[in-house]
Amino acid sequence: MEPRTSRPVPDRPDAREDGSAPSARGVIPAFDEELERSLGRGRRRRVGAIALTAVVFLLAAAAFAGIGAVVLHSELLGGVPSAHAGPTTAVPDDGGADGASRPRGKTEPSATPSRRTERGPYIPRRGTGEFTRPKGAKKTVGSGRLMRYMVEVEGGLGQDPAEFARTVDRILAHPRGWTARGKVAFRRVDRGPYDFVVRLASPGTVDKLCAAYGLDTEGEVNCAGGKEVVVNLRRWLLLNPYYQGRPDEYRALVINHEVGHRLGYGHATCPGKGRPAPVMQQQIFGLKGCVPNPWPYDRKGRFITGPAVP
């Protein structure tokens, strides 16, 4: 069966965010200091870019003013300025005194290839707004209450919908996942009734989808509301500070945390220093002394939890 396309249809507001407190009425909770700093970096970068542009403009204006003065002086003397008449002020192409490089256009070649910085992953601000749904899987994993889910990927992201679906499948079928105790089973479908849908979307589309549940994601974080688990492409590729270099584990945390809410689990916090963080802990806000952990159960099949968070 060919992949299906669908348009997002907001469900009943019942929103939670990856790193936000649950809110049955769709009201976004206050971010804590850690996430505020993370989101604030985007604002500071925008202000810094504006200031840098102003400085470059002023330096360029000063350079042109100096050149104009030389030309005027030469014309008054009846001559033509020499190419070696003297030094002039110039704005460097690849960084100033601090060695920082200014961004280049995508098609502009570097004058010094050895200094070219490696490009990051492709993260468009907005995708097409339409989603592709891969063909469902025939296999049911786990036993107990059956949860049917769909997987969708927004167009224009450069991401393979079938590969993303397989990643979600692997996470939900993991021995330390939600099926470990035989209470729940999962099956991916592409039509008919479903219990939740996992969507991979661009930052701009995430903002739009999450706004329907009263969540302000600022192009930075994931969210969940109603039957939707909305995964931000930025977080999926760049991870969070506690999982750098561990993409598989971070992605498992995102899926398991939000699916945990769909299963009725609330937030928990760290049970003790050095112990694994519960998957239902808001780990993006800090580990509180625990160590990173993306799974609901440990290797002995014991549920990893801690004190409930009101």
UniProtKB/TrEMBL annotation:
Keyword Transmembrane helix found: yes
Assigned keywords, A-Z: Membrane, Transmembrane, Transmembrane helix
Transmembrane spans: 47-72
Record bears the keyword Hydrolase: no
Region (Disordered): 1-28, 86-139
InterPro entries, per database record: DUF3152 (IPR022603)
Compositionally skewed regions (Basic and acidic residues) per UniProt: 1-19
The protein's name in its UniProt record: Membrane protein
Domain DUF3152: 120-287
Pfam families reported for this sequence: DUF3152
